[in-house]
Amino acid sequence: MNRPLLPLPANGPEKKLVFTMDLGNPDLYTTEDRFTMWQEYVANDAKIWSEPGSSPNGFWSLFSHQDVSAMLSPKAPFTSEHGMMIGFDAQNPDNAGGRMLVVSEGKWHSALKRLIGPFLSRLRAPELESVLQREIKEIVERMKAEDATDVALEVGPRLPAAIVCEVIGVPLSDRPRLIELTNHAFGGEDSSFNKMTSGVAHSEILFYFYELIEERTKNPGDDLVSTLLTDGRLSADDVLINCNNVLIGGNETTRHSITGAFHIFQAFPEVLHALQDDPELLDTAVEEVVRWTSPAMHVLRVATEDVTIGGQDIRKGEPVVGWLSAANRDARLFPEPHAFRADRKPNRHLGFGNGPHHCLGAALARIELRELLRELSQEAEAVQLNSDPRWMRSNLVQGYQSLPVTMEWR
Ligand code: HEM
User: Fold this and answer.
1) Which protein family is it in (predicted)?
2) Is residue 253 within 6 Å of ligand 1 at its C-beta?
3) Whether the predicted pLDDT of 330 surpasses 70
4) Domains and their CATH numbers in the chain
């Protein structure tokens, strides 16, 4: 990448650096040049203003671990209620704002967290482990029967889909269909769905959730949907959008960390052997998978009052983007940031965000990854890439469109 080093913005509210390249442009993130770009910004503690374009109101960008952590700290004067990703429009705000967990704040956010949190907590791990082990065994068996597998399409989406069905309380009889739909909506583009687009598949899931909500209104159980309904404060629509939050939160990110685990085993072959020899490394390896893959590329907030972050003045009402994937490769926190170190400790990555909106599904994601790494380290000898990874064209999700591999089994 030949772009010159950027001049850094001078401090002071009137001296905004106007950067002409729109950092919301998804084409910037389809190649690994993004790491060179972020490295330059992180090393220079850059603060960059992108003019209105991909985001109608423009936005500030922060990259270093220190700046992004400061923005996400519980005391920082920022809100998610207008939206939490590039593309939000202050004139046409997200109608989920103040109703959906990830875009609500204050008392309502706490109330939703208290209702939804127990369904995603570590306490549910023993129940979910058997679902996971069954799914992972099936994945491994299927892969063993194939010469080559595109893990981005056929493996990554399956585990999160099964787990989200379990969390939401989808009856067993409906799960195969829901898992297929979720796989299709979040990356699989299953050919058995003929011409259905991923957007239509997502709508089908929401229709299904709506039917589930009607059914649970009549016959409540002890599942997430019934808990949200019987609380009495949420309308059926509120229940729907919060199920959608869990659906997207659980699928859109985890599938890329799962796919990335195969990429890691190919790029750093010693890791597979290290985990085979020493299963005690599994926990630190899981954190490193989340840091290295960093599927949640950014989060956005809007300043609720004038604030200074890392010497940059930000005015009330201005949107600010924290690039989590850049901060997770900040060499000041992570020596050799592009290397995968299974035993990296400390590993204060921001892959799950930070502060009040820290990922509510982090415990589940960790369990999914741990079980996967455990099984692969026992069964697999090596992973070969059949072609270079194809990256998603997205400024929000750092993820794989395609990762075709051939496995060597033990
Ligand atoms: C929030 C990342 C897995 C559900 C978040 C946030 C990040 C994130 C960065 C913060 C968003 C913000 O600050 O605006 C990830 C990554 C995952 C993962 C990298 C996997 C590797 C999951 C799973 C679930 C889930 C498995 C559920 C099944 C949620 C929910 C929130 C959230 C409900 C909103 C929390 C709140 O606003 O209080 N996630 N996530 N996530 N995530 Fe995850």
Assistant:
1) Belongs to the cytochrome P450 family.
2) yes
3) yes
4) 8-409 (1.10.630.10)
